[in-house]
Amino acid sequence: MIGAAAVLGALGASAVGAYYPNSWLFGPVIGQGPRTGRDLFLTFDDGPNPAATDRILETLARESVPAAFFMVGEHVRRFAEVGARVRDGGHEIGNHTDRHVKLHRRGPARVRTELTTAHQTLVDRLGVTPRTFRAPHGYRNPFVGAAARRLGYQTLGWSFGVWDTALPGPEVIRSRTRRHLHPGAIILLHDGDGYDPQGDRLQTAEALPGIIRDARDLGYTFRPLSLLLRDTASPA
Ligand SMILES: [Zn+2]
């Protein structure tokens, strides 16, 4: 058996795969929808968040827009009612690790614990069996692919982010998003802060109505992420 250190050391030569969210080096990743047509896919990471998530849910409900939420297990335990409202909104809920750990330099045991603990939290607290996984920052290694496969997950990347976590202001978040829109884009936004359960993501919430309006003005339709997933009833 090859030790974790040896595998991680060898990864020096393949850093591209470790840091690029859509790289297939450690298994298949969905990072982009069909480039024909005018579909867009909204995704929110790092919640649930006590302030921003509900505002985002209100906008999505008002506009009848589906989205996917990649949740941090620790945040789900703190704000289970908020997570339940995401579920009740009919949105896709995915695993984003238990404590938002950068997985690329972690060994197999820690990686597996991060994924399985978050998985169990989503099952226990929300009654949701997640079928998708997105790595914090997109950082992965071979153990991440193996742990995700064990849980029957499909791994998601993203087409573009707009650095909304740097709090550039809602108008900047909106205009950056508008500039990057393209057919099939999986858009990465944040309804929470991976490292601060109460982190401020209200700018993203505030930008969302304008983002939806811009996309519709350009002829796009927001579609559920499930359209991009393989049909998988149960883990392999
Ligand atoms: Zn994250």
Question: Which key features would you list for this structure?
Answer:
236 residues; alpha/beta; TIM Barrel; 6-stranded parallel β-sheet; 3-stranded parallel β-sheet; globular; binds zinc ion
Sum this structure up briefly:
By secondary structure, the chain is α/β, with parallel strands linked by helices. The chain has a single domain (32-228), classed as Glycoside hydrolase/deacetylase (TIM Barrel, Alpha-Beta Barrel), CATH 3.20.20.
Architecture overview:
The protein is of the alpha/beta class. The protein is built from nine helices and nine strands. Strands 2, 3, 4, 7, 8 and 9 form a six-stranded parallel β-sheet that branches. The chain has a three-stranded parallel β-sheet with strand order 1-6-5, covered by helices on one side. Helix 3 packs parallel to helix 9. 45% of the residues are buried. It is globular, with a radius of gyration of 17 Å. Helix 7 links the parallel strand 5 (132-133) and strand 6. Bound molecules: zinc ion (ZN). Residues 45-46, 96, 100, 136, 194 line the site of zinc ion.
Annotated CATH architecture: Alpha-Beta Barrel
Q: List the uncertain runs.
A: none
| Number of distinct helices | 9
Question: What is the CA–CA distance across the termini?
Answer: 24 Å
Just give the CATH class: Alpha Beta
List the secondary-structure elements in sequence, H or E: HHEEHEHHEHEHEEHEHE
Q: Strand percentage, roughly?
A: 5-15%
Number of strands: 9
The shape is globular
